[in-house]
Amino acid sequence: MPVFIAKEGREAVLREALAELEFASRKDVGCLEYTVFSDDHTPGTFVLFEGWARREDLQAHNEKDYVKGFVKGVESLLAAPFSVTPITPLTGASS
């Protein structure tokens, strides 16, 4: 679950880049969910919720040229490097 925080004045450009990433990523093999949300309490903060059928699908997605291009391209738009928190649903998780 990546979180992106835009530099002041760069929010709209980051929003557009994330929308393009969302559109392209939804076409990738194994993509179950790929939705970007804006944080209602913190303007300029965006959270990406993504789900993949298999870990290998996520790894393949992260190796795509358009994903690498996105990561490099948004560096100048971010107030800090984006963070990624891996999450697992409680249902189906082993105890």
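The record above closes out task 2.4. Task 2.5 opens with a second protein, given below.
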Amino acid sequence: MSEILRIDDLVVNYGGIEALRSVSVNVGKAESVLLVGANGAGKSTLINTIIGLVQPRAGKVWFDGADITAMPCAERGRIGIGYSPEGRRIFNSLTVEENIMAGSFGIPAREAARNLDWIMDTFPIVKERRKQPANQMSGGQQQIVAIARAVICMPKLLLLDEPFLGLAPVWIGQVGQVIRGLQARGTAILMTEQMARPALKLVERAYVLRSGEIRRSGPVEAIREVALAEEYL
């Protein structure tokens, strides 16, 4: 399988603390991969490095065959990296549709409208609530809006940072269905999660990150037990 993302021996420091130590991760085109670990393991640091908010001390980030290690954050979105942050971060004063369209900066209006049509067809709750203020939605509904905002530009790679955080079981299932819709379209996904159980149902491979290091990696069947153990650390 050809790669859409490759991370080679990444080292990231925060002040005097080494947050990531020689981390190497890869994601194939149209593949879904999980990065699992407890709070403070370094998951969000890795995501922030991929999107360009953090610069590594050493190592390389490759996207679709190009070295993007020094590329500005805004440019990474334009080349096909989408990002749905931990905690959703929706715009409370905007409607559902306005929140989603806020992610379309940089693409032609006609293309954004076509992409919005696809989102409405794929995520029924978005179509149903499109004119509703986003702050009137439940946490699970807001998470779907945040993911829709990240895919309005139809990225080649979608980064999902803790998509199940704080959600009731019914909404974990609904968000999982949204992710499956993106997978069916061929979107590659790198997901971070502390709640490994629902996430493992959606991916082919997983990495276990602990104290800034990759401790285990492999196909879901081979790594399920150790990944589930991370939920309790």
